[in-house]
Amino acid sequence: MNMARFSLAFSPDPSPAAAIALADAALARGAESLILLACDGNGCSPEQFDSWLRGLAVPICGGVFPQLIHDWKNHERGYIVAGLPATATIYNVPGLSDPGADFTGMVEDALGDAKPPQSLLVLVDGLSSRIGALLDAVYDNLGSDPVYFGGGAGSLSFQSRPCLFSNRGMLVDHAQLTVLPWPFGLGVEHGWEKFAGPFVVTNSTRNVIHSLDFRPAFEVYRGYVEADSGRSFTADNFFDIAKAYPFGLEKPDGSILVRDPISRGDNDLNCVGEVPSNSVVHLLKGQTANLIRAAAAGAAAVPQGAGPAILADCISRVLFLEHDFLQELDAVRQSMGDRPLFGMLTLGEIANGGDYCLEFYNKTFVLAATLD
Amino acid sequence: MEPIHEHASRLVNLQYELALLVGQQLRLIPMLRRFFPPALKSLGCRAAHVWLCSDTASPPELRYTYPARDSSVWRDDPRFAGAATELREIAARPRILQIGASTQLHLMPLGNIGQCVLVREGKPLEPMLVEAIRPIFDRLATACRASLDHEQVEHLRAVAAEGEQRLRTVLETVGEVIFQTDDGGTLTFLNPAWSRISGMAIEQCLGRPLTDLLSPEDTAQFLEAFHAALDNYRGSLRLDARLRTVDAAPRWVAIRLRPSHPGSAGGGVTGTMIDVTDLRQAERMKREFTATVSHELRTPLTSIAGAISLLNGGAVGPLPEAARKLVAIADKNAQRLRVLIDDLLDMERLLAGKLPFAFQELELRPLLEQALSEHQPFADTHGVRLTLADHADQARVHTDPGRFQQVLSNLLSNAVKFSPQGGEVVVTARPADQTVRVEIRDRGPGIDPEFRPQVFQKFAQADASDTRRLGGTGLGLAITRELVEQMHGRIGFESTPGDGATFWFELPAPSSE
Predict the structure, then answer these.
(1) Is the CB of A356 less than 8 angstroms away from the CB of B21?
(2) Are A252 and B14 in contact (CB < 8 Å)?
């Protein structure tokens, strides 16, 4: 497969017509499959896109994300269309929050005994509650041979609505598995550090933490975060403060899996991704320099080359770094070299390069670069 | 108090997390599926393979892999295939095998039932971590054993449930009534055929003595058989009895009884009932028809036979030679017809229970000698010698002497007819357990195995040409069996084709009291 034919185009225009024009141009250049990425700020809706999506003659995947990355900048409005020079195989898995869904059976039915692909782009509705279960089923079926990468689509309003593009229209509470016939190299880092804990998650339901150390979760969280930040939680500023204080599940080798609390109930904390009962967590906090250094280290981990690279970076890093996020991208360019970069700022990130089980990350930098 | 070292604290946290992942499901694969994905993520491993012994005598086999896609490596990857030999034996301590440049296989013992292989890329797990997770894998071994035991129990339950379902289907569809009673004769089980025959709901009958549901005339007979069954009678007991029904028209049922738990005392009785009302009526009509026809035939036949006998005896003067031959043929066939009608009438009387028996206690030897003496002339016409061998001198028998002679006569004449010229028929008698056994052995052609089931049936002849060639009505052995059974005995035979046959019957010996 000739990666040079991988076409890439961006339009800052938020109107659906701009997306359709980008897609038409890619098809005119011979694209046999499309990846459509949209900013949440575009206000995309099924009414605008479904009939066009259903009429497309080529496979399409993609989603609506809080922001996009193109030309070394983040964008709050606009579209990216990538035209692929091959007919991609795309599986849409429904019921991503359904507690009774048998993802193992569904993935087995979808992927069957097919030879594992070289790479798998995994997009999910980032507000679904059983993303981890789906990823376990995908990994169970395909094993550690493919390179997996992707992330969670959706809106920073944390309102559940259709956020994945497919040939069946826009989808909500789905996962989308796109087989890519090219090898990719991965870089995965986050840069967040422990500052309080450990705490035992004494009660949780999938992505909702009910209690820590047998006490109401929000009560414990508030005590530490308000003391450290000097700010007080009110009825409507939770994420504004919490974006700087994620949870971390520590592994024996000292590495940390981040879980981002994005909203709260009376005493519960709602995270992006599952936090198992009986797991041990720490409170994390970030330093700008550490986060940027981690992104640079992630970029340095991918093989050098001139082919395009796809970035799935957590939106909360943008919210935390604010204007310094451009420094993160600049550090990435310096580490990786000047090659085409596009991607999305996500609600949770997905990555696996064959060394570990497939994981759903938060607040993490995931870079997938094509191998020349 | 000194704070716990951070690394040790991290390992304790890990133990806590992993320990609470163990044993969350009863069944093996779901239990392992709940444990391994999060455990592997916590341990930084990419795969796990669980090898378990299915029983104590077998080496471990691969039972679970996460991810499942990796299960083929033991077959397809020669490096793994080599490592598999390490898994054939139960190890006491964790071991590490490195395959390729950077793949580490941690072999973690699972008690005495198998091993778990943790696959990790890059550096192996540090020794402290391996020590920290050993107790987790001990717990996992216990959970695996419990799951295997549970699955075995589930399997046995499923087999039992399948068998029970099959049995229930049979019980519900079979046309026979199947019933069980306790030791007191109270009904404890009835299948649906009961309602079809009796018209009574099963619920109304369970808990009642079965005798309540039979006609009073048959109660004593039933109780005799019931107690015989309870006393562990070997085999099944049979009787016909009348069953009360809701419409008050009793139904005849053929009842078979046997102990519910043969070989042990008590436990009640299991039995079957078949509705034979229509069958009995048909049998009765057939017997009446046979008797009527036989009587109607016998009267004119007597006149015909008498007339022929007079002609044959010269009552009307010498007959021309041709007429004499014709009269002889008519006389012979009139006699055959008379024998046939007599047999039919005997049979009818036997089946109707109208043939009287005058039981006596007699010495066996004179009965046998009389029978042989009376049949020797007949045997001489066939060139056959009759021999009484090994008779029991002091043996006595409880029988009707006339019927005894009828039985022996039938068996002897059969043996003579089927013996070769110059052959010998040997009669042996010997006492057995509370009975006397008489055997009649010939050296004839024996009985074809295919014909054996029909030997004692009415009008049975192994070869239809036998009737004409050897004479006989085909009723002799059927009558013989009825006679023996009505004298409370048994009859049977053994035969090797080409090597003759031995017919035997047993009759009760007089009681010693």
Answers:
(1) no
(2) yes
* Strand ranges for B311-371 from DSSP E: 360-363
Do you find a cis peptide bond into A66, omega within 30 degrees of 0? no
- ipTM above 0.90 for this complex: no
Rounded to whole angstroms, the Cα distance separating A65 from A53 reads 18
Mutate to test the interface with A, among B6, B11, B17, B128 (most CBs of A within 10 A): B17
Any residues with CB less than 8 A from the CB of B10 and at least 6 apart, and which?
A: A250, A252, A254
Of A254, A354, A359, nearest to B41 by CB-CB distance is: A359
Distances (CA, A) of B459 to B344, B353, B463, B485: 10, 20, 11, 19
Nearest to A125 by CA among A87, A98, A144, A143: A98
Going from the first residue of chain A to its last (372 residues), give the mean pLDDT of each consecutive group of 10, the final group possibly shorter: 68 97 95 96 96 96 97 95 93 94 90 83 94 93 92 92 97 95 90 91 92 95 95 92 91 84 92 87 92 94 89 91 92 91 94 84 91 78
Whether A252 and B20 lie within 8 Å, measured CB to CB: no
A140·B38 Cβ contact <8 A? no
Q: Using the beta-carbon criterion (under 8 Å), do B69 and A279 form an inter-chain contact? A: no
Give, in order, the Cα–Cα distances in Å from B38 to each of A224, B32, B419.
28, 11, 89
- Is the bond leading into B262 cis (omega within 30 degrees of zero)? no
Cβ atoms < 10 Å from Cβ of A194: 16
Cβ contacts of A154-159, under 8 Å, gap ≥ 24: A154/A40, A154/A63, A154/A64, A154/A65, A154/A66, A154/A125, A154/A126, A154/A127, A154/A347, A155/A40, A155/A64, A155/A66, A156/A40, A156/A66, A156/A315, A156/A347, A157/A40, A158/A127, A158/A239, A158/A262, A158/A263
Residue of A140, A251, A355 lying closest to B121 (CB–CB):
A355
Does residue B391 register a pLDDT over 80?
no
Other Cβ atoms less than 10 A from the Cβ of A139: the count is 27
Give the pTM.
0.66
**How many residues can be counted in chain B?**
513
